[in-house]
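Hi R.,

Here's the chain you asked about this morning:
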Amino acid sequence: MNGIKTATFATDGSPGKRMAMVSVLKLIAVAIVCAFTALLSPRWAHAQSSKLDAVLSKGKVVVGVSSESPPFGFVDEKGALTGFDIDIAKLIAKSLFGDDNPNRIEFVKQSSAARWENVNSGKVDFGIHVATILPDRVARVAFTQGYIDSGIVVVVKKDSPIKTFADLDNPKYSTAILSTPVQAARAKQFFPKAKAVVLDSTGAQFTAVKANRVDAAQLDEPVALWYVKQNPDVRLLTQKMTAATNNAVFMKPGDFAWWLALDTYVGEMRGGSLYPEYTAIYEKWFGKAPPNAKYYVK
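And the predicted structure, written out as tokens:
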């Protein structure tokens, strides 16, 4: 007809088979168009919006911290929230936004038991709360690399007869633990016969030891060293409950862009462009320079 030939799709010329073949080809064509559209769409490149985009867009980051864990996070005599973790969080905010405007960061005081839920629910954008990286915790939240070395030690009164974990493993003694499974497990492992007294904060643990309400408490080593420095009537047992560990920034898992940004900032603090500022913060709270992650740099 008018010199135009009709394509044939079936060898037997059956109209039904020709129509079926045309339908298949149409579906293939639609699929190809959809695929190319998705590839070219900016939305495909960001299939899931990142917390990083949301934080930069609102111009403020919300951070979960402890307010009862000196020297990491506590309320000073003037009623201001202060501490090593607080200063590190401020350095991260400064790095994110390119300025040190105090309105760029909002702190949420939280208990140790609430810290994982607060990041996973979105109540806070990230947490920096004396959080040690442990295998079971990796299943709950995402961690950056460590921003300070840590470990778990036991504090007792200086005049206490307790010298070892074996001494403490006695029904006549009591130990203060937080309401976290890991502290309960450690107490059961090292001194199961001692009575465990559950308290709601690291500060409460130390105060209970100092006031002779309990005989011992397990604390993060940097926290314990800070307390001992301020309180000469308290000492550490020479035995440690764990090997060297890392305290890290943590966030809701599954957001690679947000994790990468925070992890990069921590890496730069420990041995890169942010090391000078990190060093000033570290010396402020611990009285000495931090180890550089680059072993060949002093």
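The radius of gyration is 29 Å.

Let me know if you need anything else.
M.
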